[in-house]
Amino acid sequence: MLNILKRGSLSGSDREEYIRAVHYDNFAADYSKLRVHMSYAPHVHANGALLAWHRQFIWLWEHALRTECAYQGYLPYWDWPLYAHNLSASPLFDGSPTSLSGDGNRDHDYCVTSGPFANMRVHFAQGATPTLQMPPNIFDYTPHCLNRQFNSTVTAIFANATVIDRLLASSDIITFQERMDISMNPEVWAREFGPHTAGHKAMTGTMEDFLSSPQDPAFMLHHGMVDRMWAIWQGLDETNHRWAINGTMTLYNLPLTPGLTLETEFGFGVLGPSKKMRELMSPQAGDYCYEYT
Ligand SMILES: [Cu+2]
C-alpha cells in the first residue's frame, strides 16, 4: 500500500508542530545547509533549472523534518492568491503564534518582532541581486535580524488568481517558465514579475536576497507553491508537460552552459547526493512520493 505524503494546509495544532520542527532543524539557521542554496544560486535561478533544483531542495527539507524532527504533518505551502491583497491578514503572516511571524516592525529596522520567529537572527548579509558574478565575502558571518517589509501590491498584481490560471494554462514549458519567473528576461525584471519573483519581492528584506533568501522560514512555503504549480501543470498533460525541459543552467538562460537534458546532474552539497534532472520530474517517482492537496 503506497503511503503518499500529502502537502497542504495545516490546522492550528499541526501548525504548532510544524513550527516546532522548523525551530529544531532550521535550514535557514544552519550555516552549512544555507551555503548550499547560496553556492548554487547563479546556476539554478532565472533559468531552466529553477523548478527541478528547488523541487529537490524543498524535498530535502521535508525529508530532514521527517527524519530528524519526527515531523509527521503535511508540508505546507503559501497559497499566493488567498491573501495576495493583504499579506498581514494571512494566517501565515499575521504574526500570531501559529503563523510564520508577521511583517517587519517599522520602529525596529523592519526586524520581525511578532510570532514564533520574533527576533530571529540570520547569518548572511543581504542585498544580493541576480548576477553571474558572486559578490565578494558573501559567506562572511554577518548576524542581523530576520527582516520583512510587506508590499501586498506586488502580490495583488503579480500573484493573484488570474495570474495562477494563466500560468497553469501555459501551452509549453517555455511559456510556463516565463510566466512563473519573468525575471528570466532581465529587461523586464525591474517592472514585471512572475509569481515566483513576486513572492520574494512582496516580502522584501531577507526574502528578497538572491542568495540567502532561505534564511526566512517563509521561503520553503513559497517554493512549495512554486513546486505545486509545476506539479499541477505537469499533471495536466503527461505526454507534453511531464518531461518538458527548456533552458540552461546559467542565469537568464544564457548559453554559457549546455542546454538541459534529462541527464543533466544537479548538485546539493551537504544536503544530499547529486540528482539527474530525470529523477526530479515527477512527485511520485524515484525518491519522491508526495502530492499536493
Ligand atoms: Cu532559490
Could you describe the 3D structure shown?
GO terms for molecular function: metal ion binding; oxidoreductase activity. Keywords: Copper, Metal-binding, Oxidoreductase. It comes from Penicillium cosmopolitanum. This is Tyrosinase central domain protein. Residues 216-227 form the Tyrosinase copper-binding domain. A hairpin with a 5-residue loop joins strand 2 and strand 3. The model has no long low-confidence stretch (mean pLDDT 92). This protein has 293 residues and is mainly alpha-helical. It has one domain: di-copper center containing domain from catechol oxidase, CATH 1.10.1280.10. The radius of gyration is 18 Å and the shape is globular. Helices cover 32% and strands 6% of the residues. Helix 4 packs antiparallel against helix 7. The strands form four sheets. It has a two-stranded parallel sheet with strand order 1-8. It binds copper (II) ion. Residues 37, 45, 54 line the site of copper (II) ion.
SSE order and pairing:
Layout: E1 5-7, H1 12-24, H2 31-40, H3 50-68, E2 104-105, E3 111-112, E4 121-122, E5 144-145, H4 152-158, H5 161-168, H6 173-180, H7 195-203, H8 218-236, E6 265-266, E7 275-276, E8 290-292
Parallel strand pairs: 1-8
Antiparallel strand pairs: 2-3, 4-5, 6-7
Helix pairs in contact: 3-8, 4-7, 5-6, 7-8
